[in-house]
Design goal:
This protein is an all-alpha fold. It has six helices and no strands.
């Protein structure tokens, strides 16, 4: 009977850990997703004049479905782009929260893992964009690469710090 009770406690603890991992990832992803848009508004819109401020939410629509679809959707492109953006920041947030305990137990700092995670995210997301769409910037242009890595750092670092705080320094 004690063995069954111990197994039940272990299952309940794992479910609680999974729930907290998901919540930490969702919160970190949401905050990181907002911060990356603030970065893009300041740098891409304000400093570099790459797009109008209103172009940020609809940008994901064009990257995924192409400029023609983005234009044909009109105002709906803002909603679609916002949905795409927040879907991915939440999924990546949960992914980071899921792997963070592994690195925390080995003594790695969250911001170091965030830097590596940002680079991996940029590569994976942009390879995916290249595969599904022909409407994308030149991903071999050093300015595009550096700008992309910087924007993903502004996502990954807050994500990592929130996940670290929510899950504890030791995972």
């Amino acid at each position: 009977m004690a063995m069954a009770s111990s197994a039940t406690a272990s299952v309940n603890a794992n479910q609680a850990d999974l729930g907290e991992t998901i919540r930490a990832g969702l919160l970190g992803g949401l905050v990181g997703g907002v911060i990356i848009w603030i970065y893009e508004a300041i740098v891409w819109v304000g400093a570099q004049h790459l797009m109008p401020l209103a172009g940020i939410p609809r940008n994901a629509t064009g990257l995924v479905f192409g400029k023609d679809v983005q234009d044909s959707l009109g105002a709906v492109a803002y909603l679609v782009g916002t949905g795409i953006h927040f879907f991915f920041v939440l999924v990546w947030g949960v992914a980071f929260a899921s792997v963070w305990p592994y690195f925390a137990r080995r003594g790695y700092e969250a911001t170091l893992i965030a830097v590596l995670f940002a680079v991996i995210l940029w590569i994976v997301m942009h390879v995916a964009i290249v595969l599904v769409s022909s409407n994308h910037p030149n991903y071999l242009d050093p300015n595009v690469i550096i700008g992309g890595f910087m924007s993903h750092l502004f996502y990954a670092v807050p994500l990592a710090l929130i996940v670290k705080q929510r899950l504890g320094a030791n995972g």
